[in-house]
């Protein structure tokens, strides 16, 4: 290391792993545009994007929690509970801004509570959020009481039908969200701490970073994003039924893993996650467009997750080998 | 630190139990001691509901005469597949109405998740409580047949309703409608709605759901045998029958088949998603949606025109018939080929399959949607 690199602020470059996801995403798009005549139509691409907006927003938060080495499987049930509150408030014609505020607040409270369970009560993240998920799922049953919310007033339709500057609203919305969180995770100390704690909680504590606070912040932010996604969900479906959010946690974890975030924590980025979300969404879209039986959808996503972890391992091993080789070369030079 | 963890954990469990308790208010506890309390609660429930429930069938007024009170206060339990969905809530309302009419005790005992193991556990509890009759909507006949046998051996009358297990010891199956009628009626109605010809797509729940698959088979059979100008282009299955997945797949079906004229939402949970997909695509009036959705679920879609009809049966009436059948069995009265059930009308009995049939499927349209509440 030379002196100048110590003075210059650390600017992480996108890793090879992210390029890998982006490249297979591009290959996927090329293949589907050749084999399906409907795939490249503006209408279809917009549909894919619109239908994965809430997943994409939740996955930002999931990335942060997984970089910390944690996981949150309560996001689907949390989204369901918030969506029911949103539905109730829509039926009573509350101010949309107020509804939005309450949704994000509720989500944040759930997220922070998860964070407390994981840090203060020291319950492993997968167990704590599994418990919360079950409790919230029971709450959904209790709150809906057998009567689903259908035909809700279409207030948050910006995300379903809206256009901003001639572009579909989700494009703008996701660009803003991902840019903000990319900056947060790349340049803002609080964001950088997430990587530090994810790599080694002990080492970060020794260097004065509060691992507890970082984790609570990450779970809280994930909660806020889940709350916001509930608005998108209700805008998209104008209904809340009993299975709401059933698949969200698994879909989000799959997207984050395919996007290159290490399941062991410490590595990953929102750019990779966005590529992961799109990759899975386009894969599912292609499966329907090509008329492949639905059963294969689950199998394909399963294979993708395993492949991603394998690719991760290969990349890690190779970079470690390179490091070792470099090190030994340096020693030889001495 | 450890102490704190324990306190938090136990708090968590208490909260969890509270929620579970709310959801399964009628479920009997594992111990026998609280069973007495449960019973008292179950007895109060029908009375409270009869005064507040306006959900009872419209025919109720006419049913005041023709009802012969039961010989004694029989305790009839029903195990639904799960609780907390409009469908089984309506069955419960019907059962409670019948219990009030005939002077018997009705217990609706279910779990908030559809699980055969839970049904076995609940049934064993009911055997412990020595109820007089148990009716069950069977989730998995293999796991339930043995416990049904044990209940009969304990002197309890066992029969099925809503979902059958033909090879079990059950005395009768109280059926909502014939699967064939449900499949055929749906296709007949849809074909009429889309003007006699065109492409239609199907969006179902999990690919393993037996009842949904049976209905789909009958739909295909009907199209093949009767409507040469109608083509079923694809059948999609959704993860857990979620509305969100249904919305996505319905939109993609419309992309793949731009001329599609009809979409069938087979699982009730997929109805809102498929209907919303057509609204989002701006194809209201172009693509007609039909499915097995309850009136409360489909009302907004029928009003907006995205759905013209929904096919179902009246689960309130089914719940009523369920209790009526239990009383007949307990009092040793044989079913006739055609039975006149007060409040419901003529009910056919098929001796060879031991099936008591509620009637033909109910076609819900703009004209009658407001007369139901389930």
From TrEMBL, chain A:
<keyword id="KW-1003">Cell membrane</keyword>
<feature type="transmembrane region" description="Helical">
    <location>
        <begin position="298"/>
        <end position="315"/>
    </location>
</feature>
<keyword id="KW-0472">Membrane</keyword>
<dbReference type="GO" id="GO:0022857">
    <property type="term" value="F:transmembrane transporter activity"/>
</dbReference>
<protein>
    <recommendedName>
        <fullName>Autoinducer 2 import system permease protein LsrC</fullName>
    </recommendedName>
</protein>
<keyword id="KW-1133">Transmembrane helix</keyword>
<feature type="transmembrane region" description="Helical">
    <location>
        <begin position="216"/>
        <end position="234"/>
    </location>
</feature>
<keyword id="KW-0997">Cell inner membrane</keyword>
<comment type="subunit">
    <text>The complex is composed of two ATP-binding proteins (LsrA), two transmembrane proteins (LsrC and LsrD) and a solute-binding protein (LsrB).</text>
</comment>
<feature type="transmembrane region" description="Helical">
    <location>
        <begin position="97"/>
        <end position="117"/>
    </location>
</feature>
<comment type="function">
    <text>Part of the ABC transporter complex LsrABCD involved in autoinducer 2 (AI-2) import. Probably responsible for the translocation of the substrate across the membrane.</text>
</comment>
<dbReference type="Pfam" id="PF02653">
    <property type="entry name" value="BPD_transp_2"/>
</dbReference>
<dbReference type="InterPro" id="IPR001851">
    <property type="entry name" value="ABC_transp_permease"/>
</dbReference>
<feature type="transmembrane region" description="Helical">
    <location>
        <begin position="20"/>
        <end position="40"/>
    </location>
</feature>
<dbReference type="GO" id="GO:0005886">
    <property type="term" value="C:plasma membrane"/>
</dbReference>
<feature type="transmembrane region" description="Helical">
    <location>
        <begin position="164"/>
        <end position="185"/>
    </location>
</feature>
<keyword id="KW-0812">Transmembrane</keyword>
<keyword id="KW-0813">Transport</keyword>
<feature type="transmembrane region" description="Helical">
    <location>
        <begin position="270"/>
        <end position="292"/>
    </location>
</feature>
<feature type="transmembrane region" description="Helical">
    <location>
        <begin position="60"/>
        <end position="90"/>
    </location>
</feature>
<feature type="transmembrane region" description="Helical">
    <location>
        <begin position="123"/>
        <end position="144"/>
    </location>
</feature>
Automatic annotation (TrEMBL), chain B:
<keyword id="KW-0732">Signal</keyword>
<protein>
    <submittedName>
        <fullName>Monosaccharide ABC transporter substrate-binding protein (CUT2 family)</fullName>
    </submittedName>
</protein>
<dbReference type="InterPro" id="IPR025997">
    <property type="entry name" value="SBP_2_dom"/>
</dbReference>
<dbReference type="Pfam" id="PF13407">
    <property type="entry name" value="Peripla_BP_4"/>
</dbReference>
<feature type="compositionally biased region" description="Low complexity">
    <location>
        <begin position="43"/>
        <end position="62"/>
    </location>
</feature>
<dbReference type="GO" id="GO:0030246">
    <property type="term" value="F:carbohydrate binding"/>
</dbReference>
<feature type="region of interest" description="Disordered">
    <location>
        <begin position="31"/>
        <end position="62"/>
    </location>
</feature>
<feature type="signal peptide">
    <location>
        <begin position="1"/>
        <end position="25"/>
    </location>
</feature>
<dbReference type="GO" id="GO:0030288">
    <property type="term" value="C:outer membrane-bounded periplasmic space"/>
</dbReference>
<feature type="domain" description="Periplasmic binding protein">
    <location>
        <begin position="76"/>
        <end position="334"/>
    </location>
</feature>
<dbReference type="InterPro" id="IPR028082">
    <property type="entry name" value="Peripla_BP_I"/>
</dbReference>
<dbReference type="InterPro" id="IPR050555">
    <property type="entry name" value="Bact_Solute-Bind_Prot2"/>
</dbReference>
């Amino acid at each position: 290391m030379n002196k100048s690199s110590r003075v210059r602020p650390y600017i992480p470059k996108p890793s090879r792993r992210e390029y890998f996801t982006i490249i297979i995403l591009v290959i996927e798009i090329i293949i589907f545009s050749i084999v399906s005549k409907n795939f490249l139509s503006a209408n279809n691409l917009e549909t894919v994007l619109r239908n994965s907006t809430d997943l994409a927003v939740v996955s930002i938060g999931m990335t942060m929690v997984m970089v910390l080495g944690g996981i949150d499987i309560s996001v689907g049930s949390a989204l369901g509970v918030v969506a029911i509150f949103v539905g109730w408030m829509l039926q009573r014609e509350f101010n949309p801004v107020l509804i939005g505020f309450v949704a994000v607040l509720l989500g944040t409270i759930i997220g922070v509570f998860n964070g407390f369970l994981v840090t203060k009560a020291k319950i492993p993240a997968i167990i704590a959020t599994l418990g919360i998920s079950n409790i919230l799922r029971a709450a959904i049953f209790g709150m809906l009481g057998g009567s689903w919310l259908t035909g809700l007033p279409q207030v948050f339709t910006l995300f379903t039908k809206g256009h901003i500057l001639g572009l579909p609203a989700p494009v703008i919305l996701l660009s803003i969200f991902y840019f903000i969180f990319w900056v947060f995770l790349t340049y803002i100390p609080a964001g950088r701490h997430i990587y530090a704690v994810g790599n080694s909680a002990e080492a970060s504590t020794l260097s004065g970073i509060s691992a507890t606070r970082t984790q609570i912040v990450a779970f809280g932010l994930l909660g806020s994003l889940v709350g916001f996604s509930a608005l998108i969900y209700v805008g998209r479906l104008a209904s809340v039924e009993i299975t709401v959010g059933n698949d969200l946690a698994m879909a989000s974890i799959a997207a984050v893993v395919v996007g290159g975030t290490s399941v062991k924590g410490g590595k990953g980025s929102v750019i990779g996650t966005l590529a992961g979300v799109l990759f899975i969404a386009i894969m599912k879209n292609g499966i329907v467009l090509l008329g492949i039986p639905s059963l294969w959808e689950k199998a394909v996503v399963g294979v993708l997750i395993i492949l991603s972890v394998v690719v991760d391992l290969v990349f890690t091993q190779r970079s470690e080998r390179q490091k070792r080789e470099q090190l030994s070369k340096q020693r030889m030079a001495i | 630190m450890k102490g704190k963890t324990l306190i938090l954990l136990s708090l968590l469990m208490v909260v969890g139990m509270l929620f579970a308790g709310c959801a399964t208010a009628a479920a009997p506890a594992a111990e026998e001691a609280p069973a007495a309390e449960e019973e008292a609660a179950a007895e109060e429930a029908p009375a409270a509901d009869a005064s507040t429930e306006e959900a009872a069938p419209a025919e109720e007024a006419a049913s005041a005469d023709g009802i012969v009170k039961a010989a004694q206060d029989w305790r009839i339990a029903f195990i639904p597949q799960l609780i907390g969905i409009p469908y089984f809530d309506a069955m419960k309302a019907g059962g409670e109405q019948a219990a009030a009419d005939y002077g018997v005790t009705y217990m609706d005992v279910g779990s908030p998740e559809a699980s055969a193991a839970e049904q076995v556990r609940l049934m064993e509890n009911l055997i412990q409580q020595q109820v007089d009759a148990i009716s069950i909507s069977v989730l998995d006949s293999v796991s339930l047949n043995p416990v049904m046998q044990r209940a009969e051996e304990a002197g309890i009358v066992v029969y099925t309703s809503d979902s059958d297990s033909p090879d079990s010891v059950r005395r009768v199956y109280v059926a909502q409608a014939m699967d064939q009628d449900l499949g055929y009626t749906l296709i007949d109605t849809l074909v009429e709605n889309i003007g006699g010809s065109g492409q239609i797509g199907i969006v179902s729940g999990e690919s393993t759901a037996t009842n949904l698959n049976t209905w789909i088979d009958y739909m295909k059979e009907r199209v093949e045998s009767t409507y040469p100008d109608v083509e079923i282009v694809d059948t999609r299955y959704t993860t857990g029958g979620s509305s969100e997945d249904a919305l996505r797949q319905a939109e993609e079906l419309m992309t793949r088949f731009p001329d599609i004229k009809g979409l069938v939402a087979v699982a009730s949970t997929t109805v809102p998603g498929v209907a919303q997909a057509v609204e989002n695509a701006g194809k209201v009036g172009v693509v007609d949606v039909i499915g097995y959705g309850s009136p409360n679920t489909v009302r907004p879609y029928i009003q907006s025109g995205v759905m013209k009809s929904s096919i179902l049966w009246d689960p309130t009436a089914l719940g009523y018939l369920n209790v009526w059948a239990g009383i007949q069995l307990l009092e040793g009265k044989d079913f006739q080929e055609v039975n006149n059930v007060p409040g419901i009308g003529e009910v056919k009995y098929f001796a060879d399959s031991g099936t008591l049939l509620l009637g033909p499927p109910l076609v819900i349209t703009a004209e009658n949607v407001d007369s139901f509440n389930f």
